[in-house]
Design goal:
The complex is a heterodimer of chains A (115) and B (111).
Chain A lengths: L4 E3 L2 E4 L5 E6 L6 E8 L3 E9 L2 E5 L6 E5 L5 E5 L8 E8 L10 E2 L3 E5 L1
Parallel strand pairs in A: 2-11
Antiparallel strand pairs in A: 1-3, 3-8, 4-5, 4-9, 5-6, 7-8, 9-10, 9-11
Chain B lengths: L4 E3 L2 E5 L4 E6 L4 E9 L5 E8 L4 E4 L2 E6 L4 E6 L8 E9 L5 E3 L3 E6 L1
The chains are: A mainly beta (115), B mainly beta (111).
Chain lengths: 115, 111
């Protein structure tokens, strides 16, 4: 079974631009979560989607948004990029049946650098 | 703010020794998980312990959970150089669908 894939793997943008990152979950997984990892703040939860619905979100400004498609693939978008948005963005997929925990499988991440 | 806090921040041991990492959290949880990350890559799930469990084993890993103290520990026995990585605890709150990670412990195992 193929693992979680994220594209692109590396990205360089300038302040003020916007960026879209993509995540393809493991086949059959309907839950996709996004995380931001920086040396200063560590791993922070962005949002979680299940069957195209956002079920929970972290404490990030509205510049960070996401969506999930009917095939469970997910995208996250960051508008008006700031230097502080430079980070490793990780996506994780899971079966995540309601009221039951399922192991999260992580992708390799997208390393975003904002200049 | 992050749910889980871990200590030590960094740990250096010799191959064959045991490594213990601790994690504390703040609110009620459904479960607590431990993950490993090698050099800024994706995370790998190691073990999960539910809120009604006190101890769990998986190979060389032993996890304990004390919900009264809101703390957990991960013990890696007979460590190997390949265990060198960052280890994170993560909690899923009773509200669900939101996993909060701790700051992590960087483990370095010297051959």
């Amino acid at each position: 079974k193929a693992g979680v894939t994220q594209t692109p793997r590396y990205l360089i943008k300038t302040r003020g631009q916007q960026v879209t990152l993509s995540c393809s979950p493991i086949s059959g997984h309907r839950s996709v979560s996004w995380y931001q990892q920086t040396p200063g703040q560590g791993l922070q939860f962005l949002f979680e989607y299940f069957s195209e619905t956002q079920r929970n979100k972290g404490n990030f400004p509205g510049r960070f948004s996401g969506r999930q498609f009917s095939n469970s693939r997910s995208e996250m978008n960051v508008s008006t990029l700031e230097l502080g948005d430079s980070a490793l963005y990780l996506c994780a997929s899971s079966l995540r049946i309601i009221n039951s925990y399922n192991e999260q499988f992580f992708g390799p991440g997208t390393r975003l650098t904002v200049l | 703010s992050q749910q889980g806090e871990e200590d030590p921040q960094a740990l250096s041991i010799q191959e064959g020794e045991n490594a213990t990492m601790n994690c504390s959290y703040k609110t009620s949880i459904n479960n607590l998980q431990w993950y490993r990350q090698n050099s800024g890559r994706g995370l790998v799930h190691l073990i999960l312990i539910r809120s009604n469990e006190r101890e769990k084993h998986s190979g060389r890993l032993r996890v304990t959970l004390d919900t009264s103290k809101k703390s957990s520990s991960l013990l890696i026995t007979a460590s190997r150089a390949a265990d060198t990585a960052s280890y994170f605890c993560a909690t899923e709150s009773t509200g669900g669908f939101k996993t909060i990670f701790g700051a992590g412990t960087r483990l370095f195992v010297k051959a």
